[in-house]
Each structure stands twice: as C-alpha cells, then as structure tokens.
Design goal:
The protein has 16 helices and five strands. By secondary structure, the protein is an alpha/beta fold. The longest helix has about 45 residues. The chain is globular.
C-alpha cells in the first residue's frame, strides 16, 4: 500500500508544532542560547513539503521550518519519536533526511548556490511507557571500529550529531518551568500521560491554568479538539469523564470535546463498515480459489487475508481468466 498512514502521535504533534508561533517556544527552550540568539525568531515559517522522496515521506513523520539568521536563511528540521524504545539508527535516519533537504535546495535554487544552508536537526523524544532515550546521538558511533583505526578513519567519516529533547526524562515541574506557550506544554504533558491511561481527567485537572489559557485563545477549538481526539484514541479516558472539566472552560471547550467525540464515533462506524466489506471480499475470494483450484495453501490464505482492498478487487477480477493461483494473485 502507498501513502502515509498518520498515527495519533504524529497527528497531534504536527497539529500543534506545525504552527510556527507554537513551535518557536519549544525550539527556543531547547536550542543552545548562542544558536538561538543567532536566529530571528520573528521570521520562523514552515518549510517546503516536497523536500524528501515519497518513500521517505511514507516511512517517517517530521517538520521543517525556515528561519532567517544574522548570516542568511537557515533551516530547522524536527523529528518526533514516540516509541517503546529509542532508535539506535536515528543518526543515520536524520542524516538521510538532511541530505534530501540539501539535494532539494541545490535542485530548486537558481543559479546553483555555492554554499548550503545550515540545517539544525532536533529529535523530540516522548517514549511510550516512560522509556528514556538510551542511544548515541552521533553518527560516528554507528560504526564498529577499534580505537587505533577510529583515530585514522575518523576524519573521513561524516561528523554529525543531532540535538535531543528527551521529554520523557522531564517531570511535570521541569516542564512547567520551561518558557513554553500553553498549547505546547499541554501537548507534551498529554503525549507523556495519555497512552493507556484511564484516569487522565485527574491529570488534566492539574493543568487547569494551561487549559484555561488555551480555552481563552483564538485557536481554542482547534487545539482542544486535537488534544481530546488524541486522548480518546490512545488512552482509556471516556468523554463523560472529561465533560465536567471541559464544561468549566466555557462553551468553546465543551464544543471541542463533543465534536471530537462525535467524529471519532462516526469514524469508528465507517471503519467498522469498511472492515466488514473487506472481510466479505476475502471470504468470497478464498471460496472462489478453492472451487476453481482445489485446496488453498495456508500461505495463500494468509496472503489474501493480509491484502489491501485494491489488491483484493484486482484478484477477484483476475480469477475469472487465470489458470493457476499464482496467475490470480500476480
């Protein structure tokens, strides 16, 4: 199958951090002060969306920003990791992305530039189940070299590392001290606390100050809707548990809660119908294969059951003229 399949973590992170005004508070709190002072934060803007190949876009989620510096334009590349364990190959993944971005810059800029723009790479890690980042952030550490050889070959290997914001390692007090806008602080707190949590309403009650500020903001409905949708998708907190809290923040907050819950119920019904239709096609195709070719091997049964709707529909047509199972499923 093709096309990116966004997960709830990506959707929430992109929905909040995709707004430059929100992203700036997180980036300024993480970047070293000399680097932050070198950048003009009033110019932060979204970067181009076509800087990586389709294959990479399907594999990973990310955000790219452009920003002016004292010495010209720069870029900030942000990747979000929300996994049960940290990725040991993340330095390679990040370098792969940066290379794609530079390649696009050379391809699209006329006349061809003689210098490359600075790209600041940042990984925001929010480990599920409280898992902290436990691997190196340096590309050179991916190689297994004895000390003597490493000293010689080191100059011929890329010298690269990415910045890491391991949010998992921060407690609520440390996050509260960060100079973040409430939308970002709520996002980080919720992404840490919501997965598999049936009592998130109690945790949210501890963040009432941030919730109140968000509810009073111009972007209240969208942000609260994103947060509620995430909470209900990844956690075990029901709408009725959140209702008393959201009622206290006014009609827009209540509307965001109800709308998110209604949409998730509707999407669940649509998913259920679609999955039922696919199961019907699978059953029919397997019956047809058995009637035409005899006993169907277990491997073929698993292939059919794991197929996407596009392949199933194609095979259902091909079985009419195919002489073998292999011809049917080509």
């Amino acid at each position: 199958m093709t096309g990116r399949r966004d997960n709830p973590h990506d959707s929430l992170f992109r929905g909040i951090m995709g707004e430059p005004a929100y992203a700036a508070s997180e980036l300024r709190s993480v970047l070293p002060e000399p680097l932050s002072a070198w950048l003009d934060w009033s110019t932060l803007r979204k970067g181009p969306a076509d800087y990586v190949t389709e294959e990479m876009r399907v594999r990973f989620g990310d955000l790219l920003f452009e920003i002016d510096s004292r010495d010209g334009a720069a870029l900030i590349y942000v990747a979000m990791e929300h996994q049960s364990s940290s990725d040991e190959l993340m330095p390679f993944r990040m370098l792969e992305y940066l290379t794609q971005i530079w390649a696009r810059h050379l391809r699209m800029t006329k006349p061809r530039p003689r210098r490359l723009p600075v790209i600041i790479p940042l990984v925001v890690h929010i480990g599920s189940q409280g898992a902290r980042w436990c691997h190196s952030t340096q590309f050179a550490d991916l190689f297994q070299l004895p000390p003597g050889v490493a000293d010689v070959v080191g100059d011929y290997l890329p010298r690269f590392r990415f910045m890491l914001d391991d949010v998992t390692a921060l407690d609520a007090a440390e996050l509260a001290e960060r100079p973040l806008v409430p939308e970002v602080r709520l996002m980080l707190n919720v992404m840490k606390a919501a997965p598999n949590n049936s009592g998130l309403d109690s945790a949210l009650a501890q963040w009432t100050e941030d919730l109140a500020e968000v509810a009073d903001g111009a972007d209240a409905f969208r942000v609260l809707n994103l947060l509620v949708r995430y909470i209900m998708l990844v956690g075990e907190t029901e709408e009725k548990a959140l209702t008393p809290l959201f009622d206290g923040f006014g009609p827009e907050a209540k509307e965001a809660l109800v709308t998110a819950a209604d949409r998730l119920r509707a999407e669940g019904e649509l998913r259920g119908r679609a999955e039922g239709e696919v199961r019907g096609v699978v059953k029919t195709l397997l019956n047809q294969l058995q009637l035409k070719f005899g006993a169907v091997p277990a491997a073929v049964v698993e292939t059919v059951r794991a197929a996407d709707p596009e392949d199933l529909n194609r095979w259902a047509g091909q079985i009419l003229t195919a002489d073998t199972i292999e011809e049917t499923l080509r």
